[in-house]
Prior knowledge:
- The protein is of the alpha+beta class.
- It is built from six helices and nine strands.
- The protein has helices at residues 25-41, 51-64, 106-109, 124-139, 174-185, 192-207; strands at residues 2-5, 8-11, 45-46, 71-77, 83-88, 91-97, 114-121, 152-158, 162-167.
- Strand 1 and strand 2 (8-11) form a beta hairpin.
- It starts with a strand and ends with a helix.
Amino acid sequence: xxxxxxxxxxxxxxxxxxxxxxxxxxxxxxxxxxxxxxxxxxxxxxxxxxxxxxxxxxxxxxxxxxxxxxxxxxxxxxxxxxxxxxxxxxxxxxxxxxxxxxxxxxxxxxxxxxxxxxxxxxxxxxxxxxxxxxxxxxxxxxxxxxxxxxxxxxxxxxxxxxxxxxxxxxxxxxxxxxxxxxxxxxxxxxxxxxxxxxxxxxxxxxxxx
Length: 209
């Protein structure tokens, strides 16, 4: 069994021990390689059905603010406020919420006040370059789910019914690059160039054999 934790992955299972009850070093090595392959090759996972409701609520919130997003992302860190990110109309809009969002039901994640709104304007071609790789991974979400107690959860909604998820992605795979792009776009001083470079990284990883 593999359990996610905020600082790493703990592996526990009888398959890692030999018939004498000793740790099987070959299986331990192969387990580590499998974990590395998962982290560096994994994309997004299909999300739980109830998250469709949370994403739909935020889509409605954004529309009421005059935003008409093609892609909505809800970011839920354990020890800080949630964020909502929208891609639409050639820009990235992010809403930052007060408080902490960890260890509470989804209905309460976004119940606090919006303390900051940021807008990053893109050209039409830049917008397409950023939107396309993320939307592609939402559409073809298939990586096995991985959860943990402390960390950051990312929920992606594309269109009205496509939903994907990632928990604290690490490594050099598509999920790691996608989360890095979202983190960059919602940082205190987002870099336009870094956002575009991370979008190209997702494409490059997807295009590798």
